[in-house]
Automatic annotation (TrEMBL):
It comes from Nesterenkonia lacusekhoensis. Homohexamer. Forms an RuvA(8)-RuvB(12)-Holliday junction (HJ) complex. HJ DNA is sandwiched between 2 RuvA tetramers; dsDNA enters through RuvA and exits via RuvB. An RuvB hexamer assembles on each DNA strand where it exits the tetramer. Each RuvB hexamer is contacted by two RuvA subunits (via domain III) on 2 adjacent RuvB subunits; this complex drives branch migration. In the full resolvosome a probable DNA-RuvA(4)-RuvB(12)-RuvC(2) complex forms which resolves the HJ. GO terms for molecular function: DNA helicase activity; hydrolase activity. Has 3 domains, the large (RuvB-L) and small ATPase (RuvB-S) domains and the C-terminal head (RuvB-H) domain. The head domain binds DNA, while the ATPase domains jointly bind ATP, ADP or are empty depending on the state of the subunit in the translocation cycle. During a single DNA translocation step the structure of each domain remains the same, but their relative positions change. This is Holliday junction branch migration complex subunit RuvB. HAMAP family: DNA_HJ_migration_RuvB (MF_00016). Its EC number is 3.6.4.-. Keywords: ATP-binding, Cytoplasm, DNA damage, DNA recombination, DNA repair, DNA-binding, Helicase, Hydrolase, Nucleotide-binding.
């Protein structure tokens, strides 16, 4: 999981910063969101006012942080970065909000993990650019109103449905990021390979793209692992077989499934004869948090047709059994 999992490690953070596209035009794919967002930004430029608040939803690694940076860049505005888990008290949020400057873009990653009191403070800040700071406790507590400069909030969440409706409704625009096509991932890879000074053939790019789970972050990560492999094996130009051998070494299979994905399918097939089984049970069996299984592994497994959601729980499709190299059980065995 450390090599090809989903949470960025230190090397990756530095590399991600370097590989991030800086302008909306350099941002590959997501045509719909890009088009909508460019209207929102253009209109705000024409009005000379801060852009509407933007909510970006989608699985990790699809470009939400990158888009927040691009929004700030295109608006020529400073960017402040925070995250839901870092905002546990209303005071944490008040401190951030009260230090914002006019037009600043505030990015809150994993905004669904903010605490309730902070969330409630955010409602008023978003709507009226105002907060009430509570001073003191109990009967003696007073609230001091504080005006804020107009700012643009960019919230990111793995699923818009995780947000309470009152918060969701306060965003002027919600963009849903989709998994990338193989062609789009090849574009991301080509650009990154150029920056890493790597030589990769067209087939090599295709091989890496097909194993990247539709996710640019994973594509870039696999590219770096292929670079390591090529360096150690003195391979000058990475072709299909080199890429495929390298990625086999890192346990990323042909369909892009990593260890967690396969663990979920294996648990489902071997422990529950293909299901149906509840999500939390599955999560315990694979030793992950329910949210990780639900927002990281499951969307991709569903998209690839390995797993289906039913009212009674998750079930493995025939394709899952086949992919794991197991015989598909007959009707009575299930
Ligand atoms: P998220 O915030 O959704 O988890 P990030 O914005 O951090 O994802 O993106 C992860 C990595 O993927 C970054 O290094 C970024 O350069 C790359 N990336 C994401 N989307 C794109 C894109 N559309 N074009 C090029 N690179 C991208």
């Amino acid at each position: 999981r450390e090599v090809v999992g989903t949470s960025p490690v230190a090397e990756e953070k530095a590399m991600e910063a370097a590989l991030r596209p800086k302008a909306l035009d350099d941002f590959v794919g997501q045509k719909t969101v890009r088009g909508q967002l460019s209207l929102v930004l253009e209109s705000s430029r024409l009005r000379g006012a801060a852009a509407d608040h933007v909510l970006l939803s989608g699985p990790p690694g699809l470009g939400k942080t990158t888009l927040a940076m691009i929004i700030a860049g295109e608006m020529n505005a400073p960017l402040r970065i925070s995250s839901g888990p870092a905002i546990q008290h209303a005071g944490d949020l008040a401190a951030i909000l009260s230090s914002l400057t006019e037009g600043e873009v505030l990015f809150i990653d994993e905004i669904h993990r903010m605490s309730r009191p902070a969330e409630e403070m955010l409602y008023m800040a978003m709507e009226d650019f105002r907060v009430d700071i509570i001073v003191g406790k109990g009967a003696g507590a007073t609230s001091i109103p504080l005006d804020l400069p107009a700012f643009t909030l960019v919230g990111a969440t793995t699923r818009a449905g995780l947000l309470p409706a009152p918060l969701r409704d306060r965003f002027g625009f919600t963009g849903h990021l989709e998994y990338y096509s193989a062609e789009e991932l090849e574009l991301v890879l080509r650009r990154s390979a150029g920056m890493l000074d790597m030589s990769v053939s067209t087939h090599g790019f295709a091989e890496i793209a097909s194993r990247s789970r539709g996710t640019p972050r994973i594509a870039n990560r696999l590219l770096r692992r292929v670079r390591d492999w090529a360096l150690v094996h003195s391979v000058e130009e990475v072709g299909r077989s080199a890429a495929s051998e390298a990625l086999d070494t890192y346990e990323v299979d042909r369909r892009g499934l990593d260890r967690l994905d396969r663990a979920v399918l294996e648990a489902l097939c071997t422990k529950f004869r293909g299901g149906p089984v509840g999500l939390s049970t599955l999560a315990i069996l694979v030793g992950e948090e329910t949210e990780t299984v639900e927002t990281v592994a499951e969307p991709y497994l569903v998209r690839e047709g390995f797993l289906a959601r039913t009212p009674r729980g998750r079930i493995a499709t025939d394709a899952a059994w086949t992919h794991l190299g197991l015989p598909i059980p007959s009707g009575q065995e299930r």
